[in-house]
Amino acid sequence: MIQFLLLGVISGALLFIRDDFIELQKNTTLRETIVSMVVAGAIVGAGLGGWMNDRFGRRPSLIIADVLFLAGAAVMAFAPSPAVIIVGRVFVGLGVGMASMTAPLYISEVSPARIRGALVSTNGLLITGGQFMAYLINLAFTKVPGTWRWMLGIAGFPALLQFVLMLTLPESPRWLYRQGRKEETAAILRKIYPANEVEEEIESLRKLVEDEMVLEGSIGEQSVFGKLKKAFGSKVVRRGLMAGVIVQVAQQFVGINTVMYYSPTIVQLAGFASNDTAMALSLITSGLNAIGSIVSMFFVDRVGRRRLMLLSLVGIVVWLAVLGSTFLRAAHNAPPVSDVETRPFANQTCPEYDPNVHWSCMDCLRAASTCGFCAHEGNTLLPGACVAMNNETRGVCHADHRELYSEGCPNKYGWLALLALAAYIVSYSPGMGTVPWIVNSEIYPLRFRGLCGGIAAVANWVSNLIVTQTFLTLTKALGSAATFLLFCGVSFMALIVVFLTVPETKGLQFKEVEKMLGSKNYRPWKRYHPEAPTKGRESGLAML
Questions:
Q1: What is 368-427 written as a DSSP string?
Q2: What is residue 527's three-state secondary structure?
Q3: Bridge partner residues of 293 (DSSP)
Q4: Backbone phi, then psi, for 217, in 5-degree steps?
Q5: Residue 29, helix vs strand vs coil
Q6: Which of 270, 369, 403, 458 is 20 to 30 A from 114 via CA?
Q7: In terms of domains, do 489 and 343 share one?
Q8: Which residues face 405 on adjacent strands?
Q9: Sign, CA torsion 254/128/425/241
Q10: What is the pLDDT of residue 124?
């Protein structure tokens, strides 16, 4: 939860950071960098997290992540320039990367198999809850002097609380058993399982770990490169890693973090000018994301991981198509720029504006200079003025009770765009929002789980970085409509690839997942039935 609170809070803070630093007004690359540097830090953090999980354990990794969260929040709150904000974002990113792949792994290893999926989904709920809380924090400080500093700094307090709570929690019993700390393992398992199941679970864990240690040997397993070599030499690991990486990349390339990081900006692109309005409406999308995580908790162990992801992707494709089409329609109906409306601004008009050339609001916003559209008083759909963006013109425009648009143009399709955006979130959250993390917590052999989880998490964050660092640039170069239609096409490709490469892991023990991935007749699109020990039947496959 904490990492995504620190991630989500930037979405609203960015609007006020943009207003405070004039160099950010037109420089979309610098704004993207402020947002995406947390993702760049997360890439390094995820890689380190995989190694630290195997070397030091799950619990110390989470504690170190909390320390990084606190440091990053403090640096951002007192930052005198965008460059220092970026440094703070890197600190937060390191913690986010470590926590993002450690938390679901830790939860899965201390959870009984029958409720493992639901508990990992609970982590997903807390993640979306953190995003929702971030929007609440943004709204709470919109009228406070220093707006964005409070938004970014206050997010450090939940990290402090988590740090204190983690000191009271135990280590993963599976990790402890691999370190030979069997008495500690048994003590923890007695707190997790009913008394009549403890001995059975200890025996199962003993067999699993001992079998893995026999397979590992002692050579080539002490270094990361040695583990990588042995991991890629295993058919089970290769198949599992392919599925794990694909779902993590697909999770990002469907464009979700354009919504999470830039939601208020997207609302402004849809035709809502006010910062306060943009953040209030963004709260709805964040709330729907949290509700979707609750839905996932109820259905992931019933419907299955694979089916839930495929249904989610179908909805994502449909609603991204609707969203892109709505933006396209809105752009074609943007109100014109009027010389009569622009003339009163005298020398504060947009430098590129020529009254002898027909311009619409969209032309005004695309000008090389930093220009905005001051809408008509009383009816924003009527012709307005194209002005240079600065504090003076902003004050004059607002003094006349007019709205100043800097991201998108006023239009009558804004509410339809918001409905499509909400439907997109509802489609994404229960499936692609939480299930990829569940799959990655279940699909790797224990001996390579930390390493493979780190690789998959790095793939997730690299994909996140690509999307985050290019979104605003794409909207400026291609337009909002083409950008969302591009994400629609990518999501359709993801639907096909996930169908062909990702197996169902619902209800399977870790060892059964290994058997499935190692099966000669392995087909990801077919349901695996584990071997029935009492009858000695061979495992079979049935179509989903």
A1: SS-EEEEPPSS-TTS-BEEEE-SHHHHHHHHHTT--EESSS---TTHHHHHHHHHHHHHH
A2: strand
A3: none
A4: 75, -170
A5: helix
A6: 458
A7: no
A8: 373
A9: positive
A10: 61
* 134 shares its domain with 15: yes
Longest dimension (CA), the chain: 89
Which strands, in side-by-side order, build the sheet including 404-405? 385-388, 371-374, 404-405
pTM of this prediction? 0.77
Q: Looking at the domain assignment, is residue 535 inside a domain? A: no
d(CA 262, CA 11): 5
> Do 68 and 162 belong together in one domain?
yes
Closest-CA residue to 417 (of 331, 477, 336, 337)? 331
Instruction: State both tokens at 332.
Output: 């074609």
**CA–CA gap between residue 488 and residue 380 (Å, rounded):** 30
- The structural domain count of the chain equals 3
Same domain, 427 and 438: yes
Rounded CA separation 489/318 (Å) = 10
Q: In the chain, which residues have pLDDT < 70?
A: 1-7, 113, 117, 120-121, 123-125, 128, 212, 215-224, 531-544
Give me the count of residues in the chain: 544
Residues linked to residue 404 through DSSP beta bridges, in sequence order: 374
Quote the tokens at residue 23. Answer: 């160099």
Give the dihedral sign, CA 163/169/170/172. negative
In a domain, 230, yes or no: no
- Who contacts 225 (Cβ-Cβ below 8 Å, separation ≥6)? none
Domain boundary among 406, 427, 451: 406
Q: Are 270 and 386 found together in one domain?
A: no
DSSP annotation of 430: I
What pLDDT score was predicted for residue 432? 93
Count other C-beta atoms under 10 Å from residue 60's C-beta. 15
End residue of a domain, out of 380, 406, 432: 406
What would the two tokens of residue 171 be? 């280590």
DSSP class of residue 526 equals E
Q: Which domain holds residue 347?
A: 335-406
- Interval 476-522: pLDDT, tens: 889 899 999 999 999 999 999 999 999 988 878 778 888 888 888 88
Do 421 and 349 fall within a single domain? no
- Taking the C-alpha atoms of residue 420 and residue 100, their distance in angstroms, rounded to an integer, is 28
Q: Tokens for 343, please give them.
A: 């003339």
Q: Given phi > 0 = left and psi -120 to 50 = alpha, else beta, which region is 239?
A: alpha
CB 320 within 8 A of CB 484: yes
Q: Which residues 6+ apart lie within 8 Å of 426 measured at CB?
A: 288, 291, 292, 315
**Tokens in use for 5?**
């609170």
Which residues share a beta bridge with 336? 360
User: For residue 163, what are its two tokens?
Assistant: 């740090």
Residues 429 and 400 in one domain: no
